[in-house]
Design brief:
- It is built from seven helices and twelve strands.
- About 20% of the residues lie in helices and about 30% in strands.
- Bound molecules: zinc ion (ZN).
- Zinc ion (ZN) binds near residues 94 and 95.
- The site of zinc ion has 5 residues, from α3.
């Protein structure tokens, strides 16, 4: 079993401070917006629906199209209609805006996330994409195995009902973080580590302490951590 990253769009230039809380402001970075296919399962399981560059630009961020979801899936012999499950890590637009493309999929979403997305705090107006009514939902409350070997782990803090995805592989446990992060959130620069700082909270959060604790939880749970916006996966075929 493995994760295959499929890059849909990029955001550049973006200030690193959007990812790492109170760290890295003034440094320009490029973010990746991916969908993730899990390979080696009987069912076709996708993580997140991604969003187009156009959608990202409509939210005020510098979105650049790389390919459509259809183009990305075609390269691995699939169409959006072939997807059986879409695990939605959280309902921010960059992860959930294109739900409609996956007509035959069951959408796996946490109960707390769905409730919050329907009625977010005014500060988060426009941030959330509630799945359209016609979508088939599997609403989960906590951790759950979705198909054999693929588990969702509730990791709130970035959003109230965020979830990460944990799979067992022959190289150990791999966890795709459900929080908008780059690898630096999990692996702080050396000077910070020397100060005993083990992680950096996601800059965007509804509860910074909870988000920080869940970064640590993921680090302790997984042998390999995937940070969903790190651009380093853009040319990576599979993890592991
Ligand atoms: Zn994100």
């Amino acid at each position: 079993m493995n994760f295959r990253p499929l890059l849909i769009a990029k955001e550049e230039p973006l200030d690193k401070g959007y990812m790492t809380y109170l760290v890295g402001h003034g440094t320009e970075i490029t973010l990746g917006v991916y969908i993730w296919l899990i390979e080696g399962t009987e069912k076709n399981v996708l993580i997140d629906t991604g969003a187009s560059g156009e959608f990202i630009r409509s939210t005020g961020f510098p979105g650049i199209d790389v390919q459509t979801q259809e183009e990305a899936l075609k390269k691995v012999g699939l169409t959006p209609e072939d997807i059986d499950y879409v695990i939605i890590t959280h309902l921010h637009g960059d992860h959930a805006a294109d739900a409609k493309k996956y007509k035959n999929a069951t959408f796996v979403v946490q109960k707390d996330e769905l409730e919050y997305a329907k009625n977010p705090h005014p500060m988060h107006t426009g941030w959330f994409a509630v799945p359209p009514k016609e979508m088939k939902l599997e609403v989960v409350d906590g951790d759950k195995e979705i198909v054999p070997g693929v588990k969702v782990i509730k990791t709130p803090g970035h959003t109230p009902g965020g979830q990460s995805v944990l799979i067992d592989t022959d190289k150990g446990k791999v966890c795709l973080s459900g929080m908008c992060t780059i690898l630096e959130n999990f692996y702080p620069p050396e000077p910070m580590k020397e100060m005993g700082i083990r992680a950096i909270a996601p800059a965007l959060h509804t509860d910074a302490l909870q988000a920080f604790d869940n970064v640590i939880k993921i680090l302790e749970m997984a042998d390999i951590v995937i940070a969903p916006h790190d651009i380093s996966y853009m040319d990576v075929e599979t993890i592991p």
